[in-house]
Amino acid sequence: MTQSLIMTMSGIRGVVGNPLTPSISLNVGIALGKWLQNGVVVIGGDTRTSHDTLKGSLLSGLLSQGIHVIDIGRVTTPTLQQAIRYHQASAGVMITASHNPAIWNGIKLMNNEGSFLTHHEYDQFIACYHESETSY
Contact, 61 vs 28, CB < 8 A? Predict the structure, then answer.
C-alpha cells in the first residue's frame, strides 16, 4: 500500500522513500528559496537516520536559489525556533517527524518569527513548490 505525502501548514511528512524522497526535499528547498528570494534559513533536525539525506537535498535546493544557510545540527524544535530569532533569519526548517514512527520523517517550515507558516505564507510557499515540481 502506497502512503500519501502529507502537506500542511505544519509541515510535509511521510514515510521515507515512499512518498517522502530526496527529490521532494530538493523541491521544498527550491520552493522555499524562490518564495524567500534571498536571506538566511536556519536548519536543524532530530536524530532519525534519514535526517542527513533529506537535509542534503534540502540544502541543495536552498543553495541553488542563493539562500544562505546556517546548519545548527541535531536539535529540538524549540531550539531551532530560538535560533531563527537569534540569527534574525528569514525562515527555518526542522527535519523531524515528531511523534511518528521511525520510518517517517518530515520537513517543518517556520517563518522569521520561529512560528509555523501562516495561511498566507503557506499559500505562497505551496505555489512555489508546485512550480518547482515542474521546472526540471
Answer: yes
d(CA 37, CA 103): 33
Its pTM stands at 0.95
CA 107 to chain centroid, in Å, comes to: 4
Report the 10 Å Cβ neighbour count for 67.
23
Indicate which residues carry an active-site annotation: 98
Alpha-carbon span 60 to 43, nearest angstrom: 12
Inter-CA distances, 17 with 3, 44, 50, 81, 99, Å: 10, 20, 9, 27, 18
pLDDT, tens digit only, all 136 positions of the chain: 567 999 999 899 999 999 999 999 999 999 999 999 999 999 999 999 999 999 999 999 999 999 999 999 999 999 999 999 999 999 999 999 988 999 999 999 999 999 999 999 999 999 999 997 766 5
